[in-house]
Amino acid sequence: TEDLINLAAGSYTVNITDINNCTASANYTITENANILLSAVSTNVICNGTSTGSIDLSVVGGTTAYTYLWSNNATSQDLTALAAGNYSVIVTDAVGCIQNASYILTQGAAITASLVQTNVNCFGASTGALDITVAGGTAPYTYLWSNGTTGSTITGLTEGSYSVQIIDSKNCQVTQSATVT
Asked: For every one of its 181 residues, what pLDDT tens digit does the chain have, with 9 covering 90 and above?
């Protein structure tokens, strides 16, 4: 036949013979674009429940320019301010070739705190205490109590409300409150 379609990349030769038995030959090479290759540097969420994750996508191959469609409907190459979760992207090049990839962003366990409370034993006394136990986040923890005390235990308390700000090594924070009666 005169025309060929849907050919794979490769070398092709055509031999043409006319009605007078004259011949001619021609060689053709069909090339293909390099595959689109995706790689990414992802940054997981620093503090549980926040949106500090990111995905920095790199694209090579194919035919520039590229378009992007992320599972969260973003159309930019890179994503920032992400919560923990699964993210996928479809990259389409200028001639319609497609490549996709998926990425998972994680987060650490939430900081949780439990207080053991000791109430004042006599009216007007300073015998109250609060002792806090912390889990989650990333140890070590620092503590800042509303009365200016630091440490996981405060003693010599009068009746009243107290709060403690707990800060882990990644600067993730949670506040816990109690009332000594």
From this structure: 888 888 888 899 999 999 999 999 999 988 877 889 999 999 999 999 999 999 999 999 999 999 999 999 999 999 999 999 999 999 999 999 999 999 999 999 999 999 999 999 999 999 999 999 999 999 999 999 999 999 999 999 999 999 999 999 999 999 999 999 9
As a whole number of angstroms, the distance between CA 161 and CA 158 comes to 9
pTM above 0.85, yes or no: no
Residue 52: partners with Cβ closer than 8 Å, 6 or more residues away: 43, 45, 46, 81, 82
Q: Which of 129, 143, 138 is closest to 178 using CA atoms?
A: 129
The strand pairing partners of 180, in sequence order, are: 160
Complete edge-to-edge strand list for the sheet that includes strand 142-145: 142-145, 160-167, 173-180
Q: CA 79 to CA 57: how far, in whole Å?
A: 8
Of the candidates 166, 52, 178, 40, which has an alpha carbon nearest to the alpha carbon of residue 116?
178
Give CA–CA dist 36/179, Å, rounded: 61
| H/E element, 134 | strand 128-135
Which among 29, 43, 97, 87 has a CA at the least distance from the CA of 66?
Answer: 97
